[in-house]
Amino acid sequence: MKKRRDRLKKSLANALLIWILWSQDYQLAPPDLEIKNKLFEPHDTFDTKTDCVRTGEQQAQKLAQAWRSTSYGRGRVIFSEDGLGVSLLIDKFLLGTRYFCFPSNFDPRGPKG
Q1: 43-99: per-residue pLDDT in tens?
Q2: Domains of the chain: which residue ranges?
Q3: Apex CA 94: angle with CA 73 and CA 60, to 5°?
Q4: CB neighbours (10 Å) of residue 44?
Q5: Among 100, 26, 89, which residue's Cα sits nearest to residue 59?
Q6: DSSP run (H or E) holding 15
Q7: Rounded to 5°, angle at Cα 101 from 88 and 87
Q8: H/E stretch holding 24
Q9: Quick one: pLDDT at residue 100?
Q10: Which of 61, 63, 91, 108 has its CA 20 to 30 A from that of 22?
Protein backbone atom coordinates (compact mmCIF):
# COMPACT_ATOMS: atom_id res chain seq x y z
CA MET A 1 0.00 0.00 0.00
CA LYS A 2 2.84 2.40 0.87
CA LYS A 3 4.56 1.79 -2.50
CA ARG A 4 1.33 2.50 -4.32
CA ARG A 5 0.81 5.72 -2.38
CA ASP A 6 4.43 6.80 -3.11
CA ARG A 7 3.95 6.11 -6.83
CA LEU A 8 0.72 8.11 -6.81
CA LYS A 9 2.43 11.06 -5.09
CA LYS A 10 5.28 10.96 -7.60
CA SER A 11 2.99 10.85 -10.63
CA LEU A 12 0.85 13.67 -9.21
CA ALA A 13 3.98 15.79 -8.64
CA ASN A 14 5.10 15.15 -12.24
CA ALA A 15 1.67 16.05 -13.56
CA LEU A 16 1.82 19.39 -11.76
CA LEU A 17 5.31 20.23 -13.04
CA ILE A 18 5.71 23.07 -15.46
CA TRP A 19 8.81 23.19 -17.66
CA ILE A 20 10.60 26.48 -18.30
CA LEU A 21 12.76 27.16 -21.36
CA TRP A 22 15.87 29.12 -20.36
CA SER A 23 18.68 30.49 -22.48
CA GLN A 24 22.24 31.32 -21.57
CA ASP A 25 24.28 33.59 -23.85
CA TYR A 26 28.04 33.48 -23.81
CA GLN A 27 31.09 35.02 -25.50
CA LEU A 28 34.66 33.80 -25.70
CA ALA A 29 37.33 36.10 -27.10
CA PRO A 30 41.10 36.56 -26.95
CA PRO A 31 43.27 37.44 -25.17
CA ASP A 32 41.90 35.98 -21.91
CA LEU A 33 39.59 33.34 -23.47
CA GLU A 34 37.30 33.73 -20.49
CA ILE A 35 33.63 32.98 -21.02
CA LYS A 36 31.58 36.14 -20.44
CA ASN A 37 27.85 36.95 -20.15
CA LYS A 38 26.70 33.69 -18.63
CA LEU A 39 23.34 34.98 -17.38
CA PHE A 40 20.25 32.78 -17.57
CA GLU A 41 17.11 34.23 -19.14
CA PRO A 42 13.65 32.56 -18.89
CA HIS A 43 11.64 32.45 -22.13
CA ASP A 44 8.46 30.41 -21.93
CA THR A 45 6.64 27.70 -19.98
CA PHE A 46 5.45 24.29 -21.17
CA ASP A 47 3.34 21.44 -19.87
CA THR A 48 5.83 18.81 -21.01
CA LYS A 49 9.60 18.58 -21.22
CA THR A 50 9.25 17.30 -24.80
CA ASP A 51 7.50 20.51 -25.89
CA CYS A 52 10.10 22.60 -24.08
CA VAL A 53 13.02 20.80 -25.77
CA ARG A 54 11.35 21.02 -29.18
CA THR A 55 10.96 24.78 -28.79
CA GLY A 56 14.57 25.13 -27.62
CA GLU A 57 15.74 23.31 -30.76
CA GLN A 58 13.58 25.58 -32.93
CA GLN A 59 14.98 28.69 -31.22
CA ALA A 60 18.54 27.48 -31.83
CA GLN A 61 17.71 26.91 -35.52
CA LYS A 62 16.21 30.41 -35.84
CA LEU A 63 19.26 31.98 -34.23
CA ALA A 64 21.59 30.06 -36.54
CA GLN A 65 19.58 31.19 -39.56
CA ALA A 66 19.78 34.82 -38.42
CA TRP A 67 23.54 34.55 -37.93
CA ARG A 68 24.00 32.98 -41.36
CA SER A 69 22.07 35.79 -43.01
CA THR A 70 23.91 38.61 -41.21
CA SER A 71 27.51 37.38 -40.92
CA TYR A 72 28.12 37.91 -44.65
CA GLY A 73 29.63 34.49 -45.11
CA ARG A 74 32.16 35.07 -42.37
CA GLY A 75 32.30 32.63 -39.55
CA ARG A 76 30.97 29.19 -38.95
CA VAL A 77 27.76 28.17 -37.19
CA ILE A 78 28.20 25.20 -34.86
CA PHE A 79 25.41 23.23 -33.14
CA SER A 80 25.71 21.21 -29.96
CA GLU A 81 25.08 17.48 -30.29
CA ASP A 82 21.63 17.73 -28.70
CA GLY A 83 20.57 20.68 -30.89
CA LEU A 84 19.92 22.98 -27.93
CA GLY A 85 23.06 25.03 -28.31
CA VAL A 86 24.39 27.09 -31.21
CA SER A 87 27.61 29.06 -31.56
CA LEU A 88 29.07 31.39 -34.15
CA LEU A 89 32.83 31.28 -34.63
CA ILE A 90 34.36 34.27 -36.43
CA ASP A 91 38.15 34.32 -36.49
CA LYS A 92 39.04 33.78 -32.82
CA PHE A 93 35.77 35.13 -31.42
CA LEU A 94 33.02 32.73 -30.33
CA LEU A 95 29.54 33.74 -29.29
CA GLY A 96 26.68 31.45 -28.58
CA THR A 97 23.41 30.62 -26.91
CA ARG A 98 22.47 27.46 -25.10
CA TYR A 99 18.87 26.52 -24.30
CA PHE A 100 17.88 24.52 -21.22
CA CYS A 101 14.61 23.02 -20.00
CA PHE A 102 14.27 22.97 -16.23
CA PRO A 103 11.26 22.14 -14.05
CA SER A 104 9.57 25.13 -12.49
CA ASN A 105 10.85 24.19 -9.04
CA PHE A 106 14.46 24.81 -10.17
CA ASP A 107 16.00 28.22 -10.85
CA PRO A 108 19.42 28.03 -12.58
CA ARG A 109 20.29 31.53 -11.35
CA GLY A 110 20.70 30.11 -7.84
CA PRO A 111 19.09 31.04 -4.55
CA LYS A 112 17.55 34.44 -4.12
CA GLY A 113 18.33 36.64 -1.36
Answers
A1: 999 999 999 999 999 999 999 998 888 865 678 899 999 999 999 988 888 889 999
A2: 26-103
A3: 75
A4: 13
A5: 100
A6: helix 2-16
A7: 5
A8: strand 19-28
A9: 96
A10: 91
In one-letter notation, the amino acid at residue 40 is F
Identity of residue 88: L
Q: What pLDDT digit, counting tens, does each position of 29-48 carry?
A: 776 767 676 789 999 999 99
**Contact status, residue 19 vs residue 51, Cβ threshold 8 Å:** yes
CA distance 66 to 33: 25
- Asked whether residue 107 carries a pLDDT value surpassing 60, the answer given is yes
Closest CA to 30 of 97, 86, 94, 98: 94
Q: How far apart are CA 58 and CA 38, in angstroms?
A: 21
* Dihedral-angle region of residue 7 (phi above 0 means left; psi in -120 to 50 means alpha; beta otherwise): alpha
